[in-house]
Amino acid sequence: MSLFLLQLRGELWKLFARKRTYIGFGAFFALEIVILLLFQLPKVQRAWRGLIEQAGYEFEGYFSGITLAFQILFWTVFLLGGLYIALVGGDIVSKEVEDGTMRMTLCRPVSRLRVLMVKYFACLIYTFALTAFIGFSALGIGLLRQGVGGFFAFQPLQKLFVLYDFGEGLTRYLSSLPLLGFSLVSVASLAFMLSCCNMKPAAATICTLTYFMTDNIFRNIPYFESLKPWFITSHVETWYNVYRSPVPWLQIVEDLAYLAGVDATFLLIGVVVFSVRDFKS
């Protein structure tokens, strides 16, 4: 175990030494600032005022930092977060194969399974690190600009309309971040599986994004409502169930179990494909 942790530390050092690893962090921070500025426009605030006051609550009490943080998280994390996670996951194995460093690694007395497990755990750590950064930076920027206050969440497509006081809203917001990270692991797992195949890093990233975007398109087609449980993105969005009252814990557990099975399948396929590949030529 100590040797595995030492190898994992080296892999993380190599991962975070690459400048492109930080593109996601920088892009999200810039996007959060832009969205926050747009929320200060009078027309945007009038729309929010109408929603909150129609529910019988005071606008100033619920147009708060945590409300803005949730909006930033909800609208950006799957598309952009998935992009940068797929970029890292699709790059972590295939890039070394392309550069020729994988052959040198496999010349050492270490199994292919160990090499892949180290790289996969590095992908998982990056996924949760990016998710935590997005969640806490959005919350921090929101609180600095709007301060504390009640929490208001309205998403008609997900039939979500809730209002909580600051303490309850903050608890639910923080509780949703680990679930969000676990949901995005599916993106990392698919990208990792494709990275283990004989394809370029860019191809692995593009194929991962194409799959999840196609899955999301099919899921939102009304005629496919009966097939909705079969689409991965239906389960990836389970993190926002934490905001419902009461919390549907059984649904959350079922979704996470489904995603865990999908992730394990992607990983197993990647390991099998990589184990039979020939790196001599």
Q: Which characteristics define this entry?
A:
single chain, 281 residues, mainly alpha, two-stranded antiparallel sheet, elongated
What does this structure look like?
By secondary structure, the protein is mostly helical. Helix content is 73%, strand content 4%. It has helices spanning 2-16, 23-38, 42-54, 59-62, 65-91, 94-99, 101-106, 112-146, 166-196, 201-220, 232-236, 249-275, and strands at 151-155, 160-164. It has a two-stranded antiparallel sheet. Strand 1 and strand 2 (160-164) form a beta hairpin. Helix 1 (2-16) packs across helix 8 and helix 5 crosses helix 10. The longest helix is centred in the middle third of the chain and has 35 residues, at 112-146. It is elongated, with a radius of gyration of 21 Å. The model has no long low-confidence stretch (mean pLDDT 87).
Which series of helices and strands comes N to C? HHHHHHHHEEHHHH
What is the share of helical residues? Answer: over 70%
Global mean pLDDT: 87
Low-confidence regions: none
- Secondary structure category: mainly alpha
- CA-based gyration radius: 21 Å
